[in-house]
Amino acid sequence: VDTLKRVLPTAGSPIGVFDSGVGGLTVHRALRRALPKEKLLYLGDTARVPYGNKSKATVTRYSLEIGRFLESKGIKLLVVACNSASALALPALKRGLSVPVVGVIGPAVRAARSASRSGRIGVIGTEATLKSGAYQKALAHGSEPVRVRAAACPLFVPLVEEGWWEGAVPEGAARKYLGPMKSAGIDSLILGCTHYPLLKPLLKKVLGPRVNLIDCGTETARETASVLTEHGLARRSGKGSETFYVTDAAERFSRSARRFLRRQVLSARVVRFGA
Ligand code: DGL
């Protein structure tokens, strides 16, 4: 009955984007840049962040709740900006929702494969993302064999949120986390977490200028554009717009959003799940 009542999305419908919190704005920013005519509905699950240390069952439940909420707002496609949610909940979202769903892992893996000359690829992310093996499995599927080095970097998210993008503390953490990959001679590194693009200058410094840093946002925006075209759902005219939802602490979100978007997010509406 629900599906019958739902109005079918058109090219003019918005794109839904969700993340566990504010970090997914790095993906939002890339989408904004690549698809300036699109309307974006962003939801940051600020009441339940972080996802990166939670179980598959919990992250899947949260993700489905959010996906259904955004579907009820009439979205034409869902972008799962959160790496942890992409790693743990993408199949459930694809099964459970009626709109096309784009995660960040596939696009990043394809980009890393084409950027890498030596086939030695590193991937970093939250504990949940790395433990799920989603990146490792996706990297293993392909015509050329690759050697993968993976490391969870749990300190990076809080450091980025504190605005500590450079200096002795983040550099020490980066050297510790990335030392083994550097010695293993990786030539490409997937930044498998929403927050890590902000650490690019530091990671370049630690790994050297020759290692390609693969940014999920840019790759996902490209994939989103091609899925929209494939489905005849790309918006060809009009001005883009954006709406922000959070599940808690709207003001704090707006404040930290400035760091991620490099501009002000004027207001975010609060929605509550599971009440
Ligand atoms: N958005 C998450 C990710 O990309 C990082 C923050 C969290 O742990 O929720 O994995």
Features:
275 residues, alpha/beta, six-stranded parallel beta sheet, four-stranded parallel beta sheet, 12 helices, 17% strand, globular, binds D-glutamic acid
Write a concise synopsis of the structure shown.
The chain has 275 residues and is α/β, with parallel strands linked by helices. The protein has helices at residues 2-5, 25-34, 56-72, 83-96, 105-115, 127-132, 134-140, 156-161, 168-183, 200-207, 216-230, 250-261, and strands at residues 15-19, 39-44, 77-80, 101-102, 120-125, 147-152, 188-192, 212-215, 241-246, 269-270.
- Helix content range: 40-55%
Order of helices and strands: HEHEHEHEHEHHEHHEHEHEHE
Radius of gyration: 18 Å
Q: Figure out the total of helices.
A: 12
> How many E-type strands?
10
Globular, elongated, flat, extended or rod-shaped: what is the shape? Answer: globular
Q: Could you tell me how far the N terminus lies from the C terminus, measured between alpha carbons in angstroms? A: 24 Å
Low-confidence runs: none
**Percent range for β-strand residues:** 15-25%
What hetero molecules are bound to the protein chains?
D-glutamic acid
Task: Give average pLDDT, whole number.
Answer: 95
Mind summarizing the main beta sheet? 6 strands, parallel
Strand order in space, largest sheet? 4-3-1-2-9-10
Strand-pairing-aware structural class: alpha/beta
